[in-house]
Input
Amino acid sequence: VPIYDPERLEQQLDLASVYYLQESVSVVPMKKGVTVNLPHICMWYSNDFGRGRPVDVARYCCQYLTGEKQQLLLLSLDGAGSKFGDAGSVSIKFSAYNWSCRTPTLLDEDLLQMLLSM
Output
């Protein structure tokens, strides 16, 4: 469990969001568009993201993704989201929530250095 510094709280929470979503979101290219798998917790709080539609949740989470995941999702979300909530070429799914206790793991050395430098 990280210890947060009150003077850098927003920045540290953003980093925690990047880490969590980068690890738990998948963006899979398909023949027509992409399939995005978001954490189930995003569905529980979907009304906090835009109008609460799955495409709004994916659009919000995109800012916390990096690299190829972010690029692929951004390209697929362009023009997505009609008034009926269709995501065009983006299929959005929510993974089942895992209620089991997680085994503590060490962070990747590069990620650890990035987080420590913040």
Summary: The chain has a mean pLDDT of 83. The two ends are 16 Å apart (CA to CA).
